[in-house]
TrEMBL record:
One of its GO terms (molecular function) is protein serine/threonine phosphatase inhibitor activity. It comes from the Eukaryota. InterPro entries: CPI-17, CPI-17_sf. This is Protein phosphatase 1, regulatory (Inhibitor) subunit 14Ba. Keywords: Acetylation, Phosphoprotein, Protein phosphatase inhibitor. The keyword Phosphoprotein applies. One of its GO terms (cellular component) is cytoplasm. GO terms for biological process: innate immune response. Belongs to the PP1 inhibitor family. Residues 1-30 are annotated as: Disordered.
């Protein structure tokens, strides 16, 4: 078993805080260290990842090609969630798939069904922000 401080270990990111002006340097011994973490709802992230993987697999079928050959499409789930109706969402997605020669109605319907009920992913706000 390797030691926790092996030379091959990747150092963890750290945040260093400076001593506030006017503070007594004798109070601080060395630099204070803290870790910064951002928390998201893991369940929602997992749903989003599964949706994105499903979209890629569907696009490879629609365009009848390998994943690397799928045209650059930006199907932004948050943008779709911001739209007021499924009709607007369907128009947006069909507009992105305009160069697809296969029928896209089944894909669009399934996508809208999967998007329904999802939450937008937003950056957590600081306690002082409102």
């Amino acid at each position: 078993m390797a030691a926790a401080t092996s030379p091959d270990a990747v150092p963890q990111p750290r945040v260093y805080f400076q001593t506030p002006a006017g503070a007594d340097d004798a109070e601080v011994t060395g630099q204070k260290q803290g870790r910064v973490t951002v928390k998201y709802d893991r369940k929602e992230l997992r749903k989003r990842l599964n949706l994105e993987e499903w979209i890629v697999s569907q696009l490879t079928d629609l365009y009848d090609c390998e994943e690397e050959e799928v045209p650059e499409l930006e199907i932004d789930v948050d943008e779709l969630l911001d739209m007021p109706s499924d009709e607007d969402r369907a128009i947006r997605v069909k507009g992105l798939l305009v160069d697809c020669y296969k029928p896209t109605n089944d894909f669009v319907s399934a996508l809208l069904e999967k998007v329904r009920g999802m939450q937008k992913l937003s950056t957590p706000q600081k306690k002082g922000d409102v």
